[in-house]
Design goal:
heterodimer; A: 291 residues; alpha/beta; Rossmann fold; six-stranded parallel sheet; 50% helix; 12% strand; B: 352 residues; four-stranded antiparallel sheet; 61% helix
């Protein structure tokens, strides 16, 4: 039996094991050494960075947490870096969630970023978490006509009419920038369809999305979406830009996306190798009349 | 003993050995620590003109002035416990949390149980699958009740009851037919109340009709709310889809063909126009592929073949993104096992 025949009959569980090793080995290596790979920044990730840089200091930014722990492996590093960038740019951050567990992730992100590294920011003045609101895209539609109706109270039960950060906000159009970290429905696509397109350019939007949902969003770039963080790769690129822009040695929690690129490299190399090998076997068998 | 059982046995023994080794070296295995905090509150004095039914406001006060106080436990990194113990052995401010530690170990077990399916179907996987499905269904039911039924439906239909029983911060509307105090003070609030109340009463009616299908007779009644849902959804989506996914996309496709930058050389101009041209060609060719009322011959056939290439490249890119997403999720789980549970790596310096 030739090598190709043996590979053709290979138990698929060896492939699962190989993928586990390909992912686990870099995690161990990076976890022990702390070394990460350099990233080449793509235009969509740079556009997110520039959109936030271009937003004037003190502006309000609407930050939507439209994901849950099932996709936190991809999206939480983005949410952390986006919030850090907004806080460092002295933007006033208004968090909302259209996914029930997005609210918990918003609280966690606020504690990890603002609570830990921007303690001077005041709750209700410089940032606020308005919590989860049910209704999916209906909430978005309500926000375009009456923001307070969509979120009458914040996460702590305070009347949003009394919050200094929301003084003067009548509709969602009063936010110059919308940041959405979304895993699916409702998420970035719905924000574009129901809110951003109708506002005709008065509000810019950037989105961080899972790898699975990113291809659907590329057609909206750059007219309807100012920038996209495409999966963990986009997160790593953006993270590098933010770390370079803010200077100094970043804390380990601000290197999470770049650490995750090690397993990506080895996992993709393995997958590409398997695809090539599978094709070689297939064409060899076809030539031998066995297909 | 079959080969499969032997493999399972070897895997379990190997893993138990790894756990035992980790348990007796370094800081040991995954544990969760919490820090104790105290909350002490007192009621603020209400303004003289505040309505009798207004909700009292609370403020933080020193412990001795507190009307209400309780203890909070917030998660802290393990190194906070190690440092606290080094300063004051036996301290009880930063302590081990048994419930959270058990939760961590349960999470690790469930992760491994799901992974075990990759080797072969087994009872641990089936148990975990049932737990995930059951917990998800129960969670969504609770979210639906407390985030939709109570605050949206019941709070509109019977606000006084909801305020008294479950949501003390709920604002009572200016007008309520069941609250005589509001009858003579808010005549202009009647119309907004009626709109809101009527909408929610209709929603309740449609919801009850939808559940009619659970009864043995009259299942057709559930068809009416379904028709309402489908009709409203289609109508609402059509407007936004046409605007954002048809008109805007068509305009962007055409505009992107001609570069707007000034002062470009012929070569730079052509290079800048290339992406837009490729997009335009792709759109036209893909549309040709889906044009079934004309035979795919000649120019249309050639365009359709180019369209197939565009589609294949698109599917390939989508597959690549999917692979990236799945590897990221796998990496997240593996990092959880190595970092949070086994304490083999410490990328965030939480333990020292």
């Amino acid at each position: 039996m030739s090598v190709l025949d043996r590979l053709d009959r290979l138990d698929r569980r060896w492939i699962f094991l190989a993928m586990f090793v390909a992912v686990a080995a870099p995690i161990l290596y990076i976890g022990v050494t702390g070394r990460t790979l350099p990233e080449k920044v793509t235009s969509t990730s740079r556009a997110v960075y520039e959109a936030i840089e271009a937003t004037p200091e003190g502006s309000r930014v609407l930050f939507a947490f439209d994901f849950d722990p099932a996709s936190a492996g991809e999206l939480q590093p983005m949410a952390t870096d986006l919030m850090r960038h907004c806080a460092a740019r002295k933007l006033r951050i208004v968090c909302i969630a259209l996914w029930p567990l997005g609210n918990n992730l918003a609280e966690e992100t606020i504690a990890n970023v603002i609570g830990a590294d921007f303690p001077h920011m005041r709750d209700g003045v410089d940032f606020v978490n308005l919590g989860f609101q049910s209704g999916q895209q209906q909430v978005m539609t309500v926000l375009t006509t009456n923001f307070r109706k969509g979120f009458p109270v914040d996460e702590r039960g305070r009347d949003t009419a009394d919050l200094p950060i929301l003084q003067g906000v009548k509709t969602v159009a009063d936010f110059p920038l919308l940041v959405d970290v979304g895993a699916g429905y409702p998420g970035a696509k719905e924000w574009v369809q129901y809110v951003v397109t109708g506002l005709k350019g008065s509000m810019r939007m950037v989105a961080g999305t899972t790898g699975v949902s990113t291809p659907q969003l590329f057609p909206y770039y750059p007219d309807q979406l100012a920038g996209i963080l495409a999966g963990i790769k986009g997160a790593a690129e953006y993270e590098m830009l933010v770390n370079e822009g803010l200077g100094g040695a970043p804390a380990a929690k601000y290197m999470e996306a770049q650490r995750r690129m090690g397993p990506q490299l080895s996992g993709h190399l393995l997958l590409v190798g398997l695809i090539v090998l599978g094709n070689v076997i297939h064409f060899r068998r076809s030539r031998g009349g066995q297909a | 003993m079959t080969r499969q059982r032997l493999t399972w046995l070897v895997l379990v023994v190997l893993f138990a050995g790894l756990l035992a080794w980790r348990g007796f070296t370094g800081h040991g295995l995954g544990r969760v620590y919490v820090e104790r905090g105290e909350v002490s509150l007192a009621r603020e004095r209400a303004p003289a003109d505040a309505p009798a039914a207004s909700v009292p406001r609370w403020r933080s006060v020193p412990v001795e002035q507190a009307e209400v106080r309780w203890t909070t436990w917030s998660k802290v990194p393990p190194k906070a416990h190690f440092e606290a113990e080094a300063r004051d052995p036996g301290q009880d401010r930063v302590v081990l949390s048994w419930p959270r530690t058990i939760g961590l170990w349960v999470a690790a077990f469930l992760t491994l149980a799901i992974f075990s399916f990759l080797y072969a179907d087994n009872p641990a996987y089936r148990f975990t699958e049932a737990v995930v499905v059951g917990v998800s269904a129960a969670y969504w039911m609770v979210v639906g009740f407390w985030d939709v039924v109570v605050p949206k439906l019941l709070a509109t239909l019977m606000p006084e009851t909801v305020q008294a029983m479950v949501q003390p911060t709920l604002k009572i509307p200016q007008f309520s037919p069941w609250w005589p105090e509001t009858w003579d003070t808010a005549s202009d609030a009647f119309d907004p109340w009626l709109q809101q109340w009527g909408a929610m009463a209709l929603a309740l009616l449609l919801g009850l009709m939808l559940m009619w299908r659970l009864l043995p007779r009259g299942g057709w009644i559930a068809g009416w709310p379904l028709a309402f849902i489908v009709g409203v959804t289609a109508g609402r989506r059509m407007v936004t889809q046409v605007e954002s996914d048809l008109m805007e996309q068509a305009a962007s496709t055409m505009q992107s063909v001609v570069p707007t930058a000034q002062g470009l050389s012929a070569w730079d101009w052509a290079w800048a126009a290339l992406p837009g041209v490729l997009v335009l060609v792709g759109v036209v060719c893909c549309l040709c592929y889906f044009l079934f009322s004309v035979q795919h011959r000649g120019v249309v056939g050639g365009a359709a073949r180019v369209g197939v290439w565009y589609l294949m490249i698109t599917f390939g890119a989508a597959f690549g993104f999917t692979v990236m997403g799945r590897i990221a999720l796998l990496a997240d789980r593996v990092e959880f096992l190595f970092d949070d549970w086994l304490w083999i790596i410490d990328p965030n310096h939480l333990r020292g």
